[in-house]
């Protein structure tokens, strides 16, 4: 865990506040797995978490210095990486980051990362759905989305939703759960900030016939 604070404090009504960078993430015995973790926790290309913390705090300190030692708000970045699943063939991690650097509201992002434990490579949708079934798979996922959103099959996806040209698209952000495939759309991805993020779960019973042997192998390893 890394926890670093600025030496500048901002006085509120009844308390002092300060800018901070906080991060927690798993450490494995296997070097290759730690390299995978490192590749996802350093979202801005830093070589270590200590470097990321120092850069963030330094940016705030420079901002205060440029404003003659004054600031109207503190910053914060909170990064947490959790293990969602870890089997002999499959590893899933969830990265949650909350950040505020001024403005009306902060930024929130949740990213799921899936790895094949035997090849130490990222898993994509194309790895788990057979190529010839991709169209049918997308149709089933869209049907689940429309049902969840209370939409009829012919209702437009323009306006309220941000799908390009009003055409439904799969999120690259997904993970395997025990009984369902989870797609996660972050804030602003398909809806406004006020609408928040969207979790879309697809029962395996609806898509198992469309999945590749690898995809089924990952699911079976969880169960």
Automatic annotation (TrEMBL):
Domain of life assignment: Bacteria
Residue span(s) of domain Deacetylase PdaC: 17-106
Xref: Pfam families: DUF3298, PdaC
Domain DUF3298 residue range list: 126-204
This protein's name: DUF3298 and DUF4163 domain-containing protein
Organism: Sphingobacterium ginsenosidimutans
């Amino acid at each position: 865990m890394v926890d670093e604070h600025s030496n500048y404090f901002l006085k509120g009504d009844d308390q002092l506040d300060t800018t901070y960078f906080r991060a927690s993430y798993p450490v494995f015995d296997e070097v290759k797995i730690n390299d995978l973790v490192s590749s996802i926790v350093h979202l801005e290309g830093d070589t270590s978490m200590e470097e990321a913390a120092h850069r963030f705090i330094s940016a705030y300190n420079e901002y205060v210095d440029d404003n003659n030692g004054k600031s109207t708000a503190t910053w914060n970045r909170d990064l947490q990486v959790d293990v969602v699943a870890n089997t002999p063939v499959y590893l899933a991690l969830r990265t949650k980051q909350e950040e505020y650097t001024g403005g009306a509201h902060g930024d929130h992002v949740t990213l799921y990362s899936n790895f094949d434990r035997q090849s130490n490579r990222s898993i994509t949708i194309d790895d788990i759905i057979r190529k010839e079934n991709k169209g049918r798979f997308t149709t089933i996922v869209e049907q689940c989305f429309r049902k969840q959103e209370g939409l009829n099959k012919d209702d437009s996806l323009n306006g309220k939703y941000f799908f390009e040209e009003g055409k439904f698209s799969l999120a690259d952000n997904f993970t395997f759960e025990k009984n369902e495939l989870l797609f996660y759309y972050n804030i602003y991805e398909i809806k406004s900030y006020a609408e928040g993020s969207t979790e879309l779960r697809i029962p395996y019973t609806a898509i198992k016939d469309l999945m590749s042997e690898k995809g089924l192998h990952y699911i079976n390893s969880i169960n």
